[in-house]
Design goal:
The chain is an alpha+beta fold and about 200 residues long. It has one domain (about 10-165): PH-domain like, CATH 2.30.29. The chain is built from five helices and seven strands. It has helices at about 15-45, 50-75, 115-120, 145-165, 180-200, and strands at about 10, 80, 85-90, 95-100, 105-110, 120-130, 140-145. The strands form two sheets. The protein has a four-stranded antiparallel beta sheet. Strands 5-6-7 form a three-stranded antiparallel beta sheet. Helix 1 (about 15-45) runs antiparallel to helix 2. The chain is elongated and about 100 Å long.
């Protein structure tokens, strides 16, 4: 399966709308914190100077730094679909890179909240065999447009790997020229050895 939006061996990035999503989330968290700080003061008495100037100023500085960090984090993110694996990297202060082989993927979940739906982006959570017992996916491809297409593309690669692989990373047993698999041949030889040992008793 070929894709113009996600070509093989070519790095791609999330949509720039991902930065809007992150920044809106940060703004919402800060708004909730401010609400909890100011409501009791407004209800129960006069507002001290610290609430009037210091806290708002601190929050503005923190939000500005986080706004800059979101842009840097976005610039650090990239993904790449290869013939047999997904390659990814991200991180501002601590760079993280990883490889997820298709033959280890067991689940592909699309996640989309209200704001993400409005922005036209989704998160594709990829669960692998090693992480299947955990709530956290091994990799999340965040802020992606055409997420359904990406999921189907990865799924086709997974099916392709499963048709040539047993899901453990090892190839399917090869066959002899007569069409009998090596496992069948070994079983037959073991049965013959057992028969010979029983005859010698």
């Amino acid at each position: 399966m070929e894709s113009q939006n996600f070509p093989l061996n070519t790095r791609f990035k999330p949509s720039t709308a991902m930065m809007t999503w992150y920044r809106a989330g940060i703004a919402l968290i800060i708004g909730v914190i401010l609400l909890f700080c100011y409501v009791p003061v407004v209800v129960f008495g006069e507002m001290p100077v610290i609430f009037s100037f210091v806290i708002p100023g601190t929050i503005v500085v923190i939000y500005t730094l986080l706004w800059i960090w979101v842009g840097m984090y976005y610039d650090s993110m990239s993904y790449e679909l290869r013939d047999d694996e997904i390659n990814w990297k991200r991180g501002v202060w601590f760079r993280t890179t990883g490889i997820v082989p298709y033959n280890r993927i067991v689940n592909l979940d699309l996640r989309q909240g209200p704001l993400m739906r409005f922005l036209g982006i989704s998160t594709l959570a990829i669960q692998t065999a090693g992480y299947s017992g955990q709530a956290v996916p091994e990799i999340k491809i965040e802020g992606i447009e055409y997420a359904e297409e990406l999921r189907e593309l990865i799924r086709s690669h997974v099916r392709g790997c499963l048709s040539h692989d047993d899901g453990t990373g090892s190839a399917k047993p090869s066959s002899t020229p007569s069409g009998v698999s090596i496992h069948q041949q070994m079983l037959s030889e073991l049965q013959q050895i057992r028969s010979l040992l029983e005859q010698k008793r």
